[in-house]
Specification:
It is built from 21 helices and no strands. The protein is an all-alpha fold. α2 packs antiparallel against α5 and α15 runs antiparallel to α18.
Length: 499
C-alpha cells in the first residue's frame, strides 16, 4: 500500500475528471425527472383531475420500472461496455421525456414515466460504476461522487423548472417541464463521443493494449498507469506473462458467466459480506425517508402552514439548493475523512433532524388554528437540516461505497442488485407516504423514519469497514475478517507483483 501511495499522484487527473463529469450528465437527467415531478404533481392533479392514489402511483412508478433497467444494466454493460450503456440510458430518457411532455392523458403520462424509469435503472447502475473504474484510488471518492452531485443538480433544476414554468397556462406548464428533460440527453449524445471506455472492462474483454492506452490518459504518470494495469490484470486473472500489446481471449470467469452463482448461490465469505454491505447501504439510503422529502416537500411545507403555491415552490427550491451545496462539499471530504466517518456523522445528524421535524409537524397539526409560528420555522429548519446531513454523507457514500467494494467480474451485476434494492425501497416510500401520513400522521411518519435511521447507524457501525485509499483490487482484503489471513493475502499479492 505504501508503494502505491508513492506511485499515485493525489492530484485529480483532468481527463478522468472530464470523463466522470460527462458520465454524470445521465444522473442530472434522472435528478431532473425526480425534482420536476415534485412541483408538476400540483398542476397535474388539477389539470387531469386525478385522485390521491393516482398521484402516489405516478410519483413512485418510476422506481418500480427502474428495476427493469437496473437488473438489465449489469449484463448489458458487461457485453457492450460501460460507455455505450450510458448512451442507451440517454436514449431511453429522451423517449420517456418526450412521451410525458406530449401526454394528452394520465395513461400516456404514466407510460412515459415508466419508460423514463427504465432509463433511471440503467443510469443509477452505470454512472457510479464507470466513475469508479476510471478513477485512481486516491481520487476515487470525489470522482465517483460526481453522479450524486449530478442527481442533486438535476433535482434543483427540476424544482426551478416547476417554479418558472408553473406560471404558464395550466394545460401547458407541466408538459413543458417534462419536455425540457429531453435536452440534456442530446448533450450527452455528443459528450459521450469523447469518453474513453472503462479500462477494467477492456481488460475483461482481453483488450490489454486499449486498456493500457486509456490508463495512460487517466493516470498522472506512466508508473501509476502501469501499476493500475498490473492490479487490474491480476484481478481479472490475466496471465502475468501475457504481452500488454496483444488482444487475448478473455477469461470465461470474467465475461459474465456464472456471476449470479458467485454472487448469490456460492459466494465466498468476503463476497457475502460485500454484498450485505452494498444491499444494506442501498436499503437504508431510502428507508430513512429522503424520497418523502424530495418528492412531497410542497405537501410537507403545506402541512407546516405555507399556503401559497409560489411560496411552496420557493421553499422546495431551498431543499434543492441545500442538497446540491452539501453534496458538493462532501465530494471534497470523502477522500480526506473517509467513507465510514462521514457516513456515521451524517446518519447521526439525520436522526436528530428527523425527530425534530416529527416533533414540529406534530405541534402544528395538533394546534387549533395550525398557525404556531415557531413550529412552522422549526419544521422548515429541521427539514433543511435533514437534507443537509443526508447530502453530506449517506447520499454520496452510498454510490461510491457500493460501486467500489465488489470484485471486478462481479461489480456491474452486483451493482445492479444494489440498485434494484434501492429502487424498490424508494418506490415503497414514495408510493405509500401519502397513505402513511393519513394512518399515523405526518409527524408520526418522520418519527418512524428517525427510528429506521437509528437502525441504519447501528448497521453501518458494525458492517461497513473503511475503504478510503484502497485500490479496487484490494477490497477483498478489506472485507476479510481474519487479520492474519488479510496480512498473508497482502504478502502473497506483493510476491506475485515482484514475479
Amino acid at each position: 500500500m505504501e508503494e502505491r501511495k508513492g506511485i499515485e499522484n493525489e492530484k485529480i487527473n483532468k481527463y478522468a475528471c472530464a470523463s466522470a463529469i460527462v458520465a454524470s450528465m445521465i444522473s442530472i437527467i434522472f435528478g431532473y425527472e425526480t425534482g420536476v415531478m415534485s412541483g408538476a404533481l400540483i398542476f397535474i392533479k388539477e389539470d387531469l383531475k386525478i385522485t390521491e392514489l393516482q398521484v402516489e402511483v405516478l410519483g413512485g412508478i418510476i422506481n418500480f420500472c427502474a428495476l427493469i433497467g437496473a437488473l438489465s444494466a449489469g449484463r448489458t454493460s458487461d457485453y457492450i461496455g460501460r460507455r455505450y450503456t450510458i448512451c442507451l440510458a440517454s436514449a431511453i430518457f429522451f423517449s420517456g421525456s418526450l412521451l410525458m411532455g406530449f401526454a394528452p392523458n394520465f395513461a400516456l403520462l404514466l407510460t412515459g414515466r415508466c419508460v423514463a424509469g427504465i432509463g433511471v435503472g440503467f443510469a443509477l447502475v452505470i454512472a457510479p460504476v464507470y466513475s469508479v473504474e476510471i478513477s485512481a484510488a486516491s481520487t476515487r471518492g470525489i470522482l465517483a461522487s460526481l453522479p450524486e452531485i449530478g442527481i442533486s443538480l438535476g433535482i434543483l433544476f427540476g424544482y426551478i423548472s416547476s417554479y418558472f414554468f408553473g406560471k404558464l397556462p395550466l394545460h401547458t406548464g407541466w408538459r413543458v417541464m417534462f419536455a425540457i428533460g429531453a435536452v440534456p440527453s442530446l448533450g450527452l449524445a455528443f459528450g459521450i463521443l469523447g469518453m474513453p471506455e472503462s479500462p477494467r472492462w477492456l481488460v475483461m474483454q482481453g483488450r490489454l493494449k486499449d486498456a493500457k492506452t486509456v490508463l495512460s490518459k487517466v493516470s498522472n504518470t506512466e508508473a501509476e498507469a502501469e501499476s493500475r494495469l498490473q492490479d487490474i490484470r491480476l484481478a481479472a486473472g490475466v496471465d502475468p506473462d501475457c504481452n500488454d500489446d496483444h488482444v487475448i481471449t478473455p477469461n470465461q470467469n470474467t465475461s459474465g458467466q456464472g456471476v449470479w452463482k458467485e454472487l448469490l448461490l456460492r459466494p465466498t465469505p468476503q463476497v457475502r459480506w460485500m454484498l450485505l454491505a452494498a444491499l444494506g447501504i442501498h436499503f437504508f439510503e431510502h428507508a430513512t425517508g429522503i424520497e418523502a422529502v424530495i418528492l412531497y416537500s410542497p405537501r410537507i411545507f403545506k402541512k407546516a402552514g405555507i399556503e401559497s403555491k409560489n411560496k411552496l415552490l420557493l421553499a422546495t427550491i431551498g431543499v434543492g439548493i441545500t442538497k446540491t451545496v452539501f453534496i458538493s462539499v462532501s465530494s471534497f471530504l470523502i477522500d480526506k475523512t473517509g467513507r465510514r466517518k462521514l457516513l456515521l456523522a451524517s446518519v447521526g445528524g439525520m436522526i436528530v433532524s428527523l425527530l425534530g421535524l416529527g416533533f414540529a409537524l406534530t405541534i402544528v397539526q395538533h394546534s387549533p388554528d395550525q398557525r404556531v409560528v415557531w413550529a412552522l420555522w422549526l419544521s422548515i429548519a429541521t427539514c433543511y437540516l435533514y437534507v443537509m446531513f443526508f447530502s453530506i454523507g449517506l447520499a454520496p457514500v452510498t454510490w461510491v461505497y457500493s460501486s467500489e467494494i465488489l470484485p471486478l467480474k462481479l461489480r456491474a451485476q452486483g451493482a445492479s442488485i444494489g440498485v434494484a434494492v434501492n429502487r424498490v425501497t424508494n418506490a415503497t416510500v414514495s408510493m405509500t407516504f401519502l397513505s402513511l401520513i393519513k394512518a399515523i400522521t405526518i409527524g408520526g411518519a418522520f418519527f418512524m423514519f428517525g427510528g429506521i435511521s437509528v437502525l441504519a447507524w447501528i448497521f453501518f457501525f458494525f458492517f461497513l469497514p473503511e475503504t478510503k485509499g484502497k485500490s479496487l483490487e484490494e477490497m477483498e482484503q478489506v472485507f476479510t475478517r481474519n487479520k492474519k489471513s488479510r496480512t498473508v493475502d497482502m504478502e502473497s499479492q506483493i510476491k506475485n507483483e515482484d514475479l
